[in-house]
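Minutes, project huddle
Topic: does the predicted pose make sense with FE2/S2 (inorganic) cluster bound?
PN asked that the exact inputs be recorded in the minutes so nobody has to dig through chat later. Recorded below.
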Amino acid sequence: MYICLCNGVSDKAIRQAVRQFHPQSFQQLRKFVPVGNQCGKCIRAAREIMQEELIQI
Ligand code: FES
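Predicted holo structure (tokens), as shared on screen:
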């Protein structure tokens, strides 16, 4: 499912980046996936997915 429509970033891409790079913050995650850098509507959902994934690793 696409989370960031502006950049075509899926939940799967976010989860994969979290598992691979273990970002300590949302700002760090954004260095690895281009999420939330345009309209910003996806930021809340992307943060939730990042948190969900961090709990599991
Ligand atoms: Fe992600 Fe617009 S939907 S920046």
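Observations noted during the meeting:
- The beta strands are 2-4, 9-10.
- The mean pLDDT is 97.
No decisions taken; revisit at the next huddle.
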